[in-house]
What we know:
Layout: H1 2-14, H2 17-24, H3 28-42, E1 47-50, E2 53-56, H4 58-82, E3 91-96, H5 98-103, H6 105-115, E4 120-125, H7 128-136, E5 142-145, E6 156-163, E7 165-170, E8 190-194, H8 199-210, E9 216-221, H9 224-234, E10 238-241, H10 247-253, E11 255-258, H11 261-264, E12 268-274, H12 282-301
Parallel strand pairs: 3-4, 3-5, 8-9
Antiparallel strand pairs: 1-2, 5-12, 6-12, 7-10, 7-11
Amino acid sequence: MLEDMRLFATIVEQKSLNKAAERLNLSQPALSRRLARLEAELEVDLFRRIGKRLELTAAGQVTYEFALDLRRYHGGFLQRLNAFKSSEAHVATIGASLTTLQTTLPDLITAMTEKHPNLEIKAITGKSHEIATLVKERKVDFGIVASSVIDDPAITSLPLFDDHLILVLPRTHIILERTHLEMADLHGLPMILFAPGTWYRTLTDELLRAYNLKPDVRMEIDSFEAIIRLLSACRAGTLLPKSYLREQVLEDNDLYLVRIRELEETKRTTSLIHGDPAWLAPSTRFLIEETKTYFARRASQQ
């Protein structure tokens, strides 16, 4: 039908079967047969033939208007479709919560850009619910948030990895002279905590309340790097997500991880979220699959 309507519109606009056939690179008899087939299918006459001249019937006028609408819709459709034809993205916009931006995104961006040198990654940060809104409004290609499920039917949530809190201390801290540390040892312990407002700080506060612990909070800072750098100078400890604590970070700052069972039970799932799959460009679907593969590979190496 689409092709027949295109041929019919060309006949109307050329006002001649011969001229239309030439324009369409068809023979005149072949075009005549196509027109006759269309009229038979629609069960109406589209033209009145007055000598060599073609004149639209009333049904033909309605059909021509439909053919023009069809042409416009088809052109718009093809234009929108072009954005989905490349599986190699040049720019990807990722939404990330503040904690994720510091713990997860740097390594992911490095891995992605090493594999795809022409890929430019942009990041927009916000709270998890803000990232979910950006995903729904298609202002980001996908989001990475520290939430296992976004309770919204318009959002698809794909778990990437589980994280938990861990106690970090300078290797020279006097408390490490003990052979075993428990949750009770956090009571009164000088600590530097992340600034309020993120899932990570909320989880920390809930944990301290649950065990009725009141550490000696020396500072509240919204940068993991700054916290790490200040621990030795302040002779303080901190609770950080395990995902942030790379071996090199610990060595460079002479830090030690203390494993406490209750802390390892503070699990939080970091997930990739995206909107309606029907609206995902092939390049976005490709990057989502690569992101899932990256975290699956990293989990298998730990």
